[in-house]
Amino acid sequence: MPDPYSPIGVPVQTARVQAPVAQGAAVPRGSMMPERGPLPLSGLTVLLVEDSRFASDALRLMCQRSGARLRRAETMEQARAHLRTYRPDVVIVDLGLPDGRGDRLIRDLVLSRRHAVVLGTSGDIDGRKAALTAGAQGFLEKPMAGLVDFQRAILRHLPDRLVILVEEGAGAHGAGDPLALQDDLTHAEALLDRDPDAAQQAYLSSFLSGLARIVDDPALAEAARRVGKTPDALPSLHQLVKDRLAQGAVF
Q1: Three-class SS of 219-236
Q2: 169 phi, psi to nearest 5 deg
Q3: How far from chain centre, in Å, is Cα 48?
Q4: Domain extent listing, the chain
Q5: Which of 22, 38, 55, 174 has a CB 3.0–4.6 Å from the CB of 62, allowing a cystine?
Q6: CB 176 within 8 A of CB 55
Q7: Quick one: how many helices (H) and strands (E) in the chain?
Q8: Strand partners, 139
Q9: Domain 45-173 is in which class?
């Protein structure tokens, strides 16, 4: 199976549209009548700078349903390398990354003026202010409210695209892959096993807080929030991550 985050990205998907049938003419058997035009984000390339595979998979589904192609970088270093070669239409930057704060990357992207839309994203309640202060044009909260909200967050900055948003039902949120969630928790456990220093603890707190919000796990969110504030916080978080992995990460 091809890697959904490869440089080729997610293929642009458009609805099948049949040429108009003349009035009174017979419709050929098996043909399709017009359903809808191109999807709202057709032709756009989105670069997602996000370390969580689970969050990335949810956004990949939203891009796919909207007609956009997605590329992903896990760190600021990978993002900068990507941007030396490619010029995406939209860049979405998570604020808590393994090699630093994403608002630094946002600030650099805005100053370069090479990208049509730069958005921040975070599960941190203070993330919106940090992203907008850095110059982001908008902010996506984790978990994202739904497909149409995601499309609007981008299209409001592209007024020349006159499109009809794709209205979908309960499946529009992009649930994410359970295996990707397991990978995120395994990543956190590996860092916790190494007796993380203060900087790594701050990263873990941000990473797991955002993940907890996406999967609606208040206990994990609280344990992550307490890291660095109380002496027993790190062992408690470590044990909770182990418990979640033992449960199969089904909360």
Answers
A1: HHHHHHHCCCCCCCHHHH
A2: -90, -145
A3: 6
A4: 45-173, 178-246
A5: 174
A6: yes
A7: 9, 7
A8: 120
A9: alpha beta
Cβ atoms of 130 and 121 within 8 Å: the answer is no
Q: Can you read off the two tokens belonging to residue 236?
A: 């408690």
Give dist(CA 38, CA 193) in Å, integer. Answer: 48
Q: Give CA–CA dist 136/92, Å, rounded.
A: 9
Tokens 């456990």, located at residue = 189
How many residues are given for the chain? 251
Q: In sequence order, which residues have a C-beta less than 8 Å from that of residue 29 and are 6 or more positions away?
A: none
60-103 pLDDT per residue, tens: 999 999 999 999 999 999 999 999 999 999 999 999 999 999 99
Which residues fall within 8 angstroms of residue 121, CB to CB, at 6 or more apart? Answer: 50, 92, 93, 94, 95, 127, 131, 139, 140, 141, 142
E-state strands within the chain? 45-49, 69-73, 90-94, 96-97, 100-101, 117-122, 138-141
pLDDT tens per residue across all 251 residues of the chain: 444 444 333 333 333 333 333 444 443 444 333 344 578 899 899 999 999 999 999 999 999 999 999 999 999 999 999 999 999 999 999 999 999 999 999 999 999 877 779 999 998 878 999 999 999 999 998 887 788 889 989 998 887 775 555 544 434 444 566 788 888 899 999 999 998 988 889 899 888 988 888 888 889 989 998 997 887 899 999 999 999 888 875 54
User: From CA 129, how far away is CA 120, in angstroms rounded?
Assistant: 10
Q: Is 184 helix (H, G, I), strand (E, B) or coil?
A: helix
* Residue found by looking up tokens 């670069």 in the block: 47
